[in-house]
Amino acid sequence: MLKKITDPFILSFLILVILGGTLAYLKIGPRLKEKQNKPWLADKIESVDKIRIKNSQQEAILIKKNNKWLVASENDSATDPEKIKDLLGALGKLNKKELVSENEDNQQKLGVDQENGIKLKVYQNNQLLLDLLVGYAGPDFEKAYIRFPNEKKVYLSNVPLRSVLIQPRWAKEVKEAAEDSS
Q1: Of 113, 112, 103, 109, whose CA–CA distance to 152 is shortest?
Q2: By residue range, what is the domain housing residue 159?
Q3: Residue 17: partners with Cβ closer than 8 Å, 6 or more residues away
Q4: Could you give phi then psi for residue 36, rounded to 5 degrees?
Q5: Pair (29, 79) in one structural domain
Q6: In whole angstroms, what separates CA 28 from the centre of its chain?
Q7: For a Cys-Cys bond, which of 57, 88, 106, 158 suits 97, CB 3.0-4.6 Å?
Q8: Is the model more confident about 40 or about 125?
Q9: Is the distance from CB of 69 to CB of 63 less than 8 angstroms?
């Protein structure tokens, strides 16, 4: 057996296989990791046409009609474009970063329980694309705790989603709307 391994042809072949495998891993490995960490709505963010945001005090229903976002929950008022831009930007990058807890007792502490969490639903042609409970801001305020409603696992998001979702109003201010029409 040892004689076979010391044969120059077999030794060269083994070195080539090891080098080829290493190069293939280095070339394909990052793409596999990137694919696993790909944002959930990255390919669909342009076709999103309805977003429901509900917390304990209010519910906002945002709809896209004729390429304009409106607040359906406020008589189809025009939305504030900056708020929509921030929301869609965050949703387009959204993914889970790391598992924080699998213990149901921690859901309330992290704000992802049914009572404290912000319920976020994103649609495309009345098809639900994303259903999340968004909790408190994460440890560094650049992330938020998130949970899928039917799961126990709580994750840390890769974007500060809660700060984008908490808005006093999604509609343009009346004063701004009057200025835009003149």
Answers
A1: 103
A2: 45-181
A3: none
A4: -70, -35
A5: no
A6: 24
A7: 158
A8: 125
A9: yes
More confident residue, 137 or 56: 137
Same domain, 104 and 169: yes
Residue 163, exposed/middle/buried by CB under 10 A (0-12, 13-18, 19+)?
A: middle
pLDDT score recorded for residue 17 = 83
Q: What is the mean pLDDT of residues 117-127?
A: 95
> What are 33's two structure tokens?
């990791």
Residue pair 136/106 in contact (Cβ under 8 Å)? The answer is no
Number of structural domains in the chain: 2
Judgement on whether residues 25 and 54 belong to the same structural domain of the protein: no
For the chain, what is the mean pLDDT?
85
Say yes or no: 49 and 118 in one domain.
Answer: yes
Predicted confidence (pLDDT) per residue in 88-109, tens digit = 999 999 998 889 999 999 999 9
91 in the same domain as 15 = no
Q: Compare 35 and 17 and report the one with higher pLDDT.
A: 17
Structure tokens at 35: 């694919």
What distance, in Å, lies between the first and last C-alpha atoms of the chain?
A: 89
**Which one is predicted more confidently, 58 or 26?**
58
